[in-house]
Amino acid sequence: MTSKDDLIEVIEEWDENISKENSLPRNLDPLLKASIGLEEVTVLRGARRAGKTFMLYSMKKGSGGLYINFEDERLSDFEIEDFEKIMNIAQARKDNILYLDEVQEVPMWEKFAHRAHRKVKIFVTGSNSKLLSSDYSKALTGRTKTFTAMPLSFSEFLKFKGIGNSREAIEEYLRIGGFPRIVLSGNVDLAKEYLDRTIYRDIVGRYDIRNPEALKDIAHYLLSNIGKEFSYHSLKQVSGIRHGTTVRDYVGYLQKTYLIDLVKYYSASLKTQEVYSKKVYAIDPAYMNLGTRMDDDSGLRLENIIFLHLKRISDVYYGKIVGDVDFIKCSGTKPQEAINVTYEASMERTSNREFKGLQKASKELKIPAHLISVYSIKKVPKGITSHLAHRYLLE
User: Fold this and answer.
1) Which among 16, 105, 148, 375 is placed 20 to 30 Å from 342, CA to CA?
2) Per-residue pLDDT tens digits for 42-100
3) 167-171, 179-183, 271-275: which has the minimum mean pLDDT?
4) Which of 107, 103, 44, 106 is closest to 68 using CA atoms?
5) Which of 25-39, 61-75, 284-298 has the lowest mean pLDDT?
6) Domain 4-149 class?
7) Residue 362 CA from chain centroid, whole number
8) How many Cα atoms sit within 13 Å of 92 on the Cβ side?
């Protein structure tokens, strides 16, 4: 157990540290602030190093409250009974908001949250898959409001860098991605640290993985094949894993812990969606630097960024039989737009290929067609709207 005096010392030190931090605004901030008025526990989950902790810092600075990070080594002996001491400290300080960062480090934390959420407003964060999964769902059914923290969108990237919107800006975003620390430092090598930490702490430690290297081989293979369909049979060969079920589980773990995301084939039939191969995208372009592609991948990086943008605002599929298009933007399974992405289309056969798929999908699904590129494309056919990527991402 942790003594009350030790808890007070830790809490006061965090108060001082947070007061010195420069918390830059994020798009989620207004939604998090609005949730203060809700009785439910606010759960902030998402990728490691996406900025969840600094979002709590911003909340504390603006709305007050008691912050505690359970990855602090001084709390290594913290037990569920010690939450009552935190409640007493909060009451003495007249704090009615608790920010519990990396709370999954405390077994049965959800039982405390279930008991206390009507007495104080509780925010919790966590990167570990135990928090990202549904392990706490039974204890907190109907008592949570969940938000997902992602790496910086392009609009947030511009704010963090303090620069205007331009082609040069999106070129840099394509290269370094949106992890806040990487954006501010320019150190893209940090992505390897993030990947390894997620694999070994959030997957291997949680799911008792017997062959971590096979899991890493699968992760690197998928990051080397962004925007492409993949088969579980290929992943078996790459990893040396004999059982298809194990391979599927490993891919699922990579998705649950926000390293990759999968896009289904477009069909109004849910059964058909499941039968067809899926495409893979990275949760941030910085992870693409860890793949093994030898050719220029600017187009794939742009495609990945457009996917992340669309994912924030709609349901996303890829098209094939209805026209070979990168994305079908949908509301549920109702198609809304057909979208192709190309870095540039300087060669006529390249632009014609992009146009042909869009025209077919637009005609068969009766939806608008859009082409997004970094550089302007000449002679765009009627019925297709052309967008420059750095403007499209701010529309």
Assistant:
1) 148
2) 999 999 999 999 999 999 999 999 999 999 999 999 999 999 999 999 999 999 999 99
3) 271-275
4) 103
5) 284-298
6) alpha beta
7) 30
8) 9
Tell whether the torsion through CA atoms of 56, 203, 217 and 281 is positive or negative: negative
Decide if pLDDT at 347 tops 90.
Answer: no
Q: List b or e across 254-263, with b for residues whose CB sees 16 or more CB atoms inside 10 angstroms.
A: bebbbbbbeb
Q: Which residues on adjacent β-strands are paired with residue 222? A: none
Distance CA 394, CA 305 (A): 12
**Separation CA 134–CA 111 (nearest Å):** 14
Residue 133 has pLDDT above 60, yes or no: no
Q: How far is CA 25 from CA 32, 80, 133, 163, 305, in A?
A: 12, 33, 28, 15, 21
pLDDT in tens, 105-130: 888 899 999 999 999 999 999 765 56
Torsion angle of alpha carbons 270, 274, 277, 283, nearest 10°? 90
Amino acid, single-letter form, for residue 194: Y
**R_g over Cα of the chain:** 23
Q: Are 150 and 312 in contact (CB under 8 A)?
A: yes
- Residue 156 half-sphere exposure, CB side, CA atoms within 13 Å? 22
Report the alpha-carbon distance of residue 323 to residue 203 in Å, rounded.
37
Which secondary-structure segment (H or E) carries 331?
strand 325-331
Residue intervals of the chain classified under CATH 3.40.50.300 are 4-149
293: its two tokens: 């592609």
